[in-house]
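Comment on both lines for my students:
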Amino acid sequence: MADVPLYFCGLAWISLWTTVIDSLFLEQSIPFIIWFILHFIFIAIAVLLYLLFVSYLNRWFIQWILPKPWAFRQVFPYTVAANIWTFPIGVFVYQLGYSSVGIAILLAGHLLYSLLPLFLARRKKKPARRFS
């Protein structure tokens, strides 16, 4: 599992671009740094709640698809890895005003990156042939 500072650096990066995009479209009456801190707090809470929800969803998928269930400590890093690209892209598209496309990217990307590896792992592998 990645270090906590790495998660917070990612959240800060998303918060920075959220603040920049919002400052282009909204007229703000508070300083940029306060706007950034407010975005960081909100995004940190939103991202962690989203990851918690989809981690439980992934745990259910894993119990349903794979014959041997995983512990939650194995599911959460898998969920983070599955959403590493789709979450920022989905939020960015949503923030640009294309809300239905952003939500579709979030859901489709999560399902694609979460379920496809599980189905590939479930598929039976052919035994290797030995040549003598």
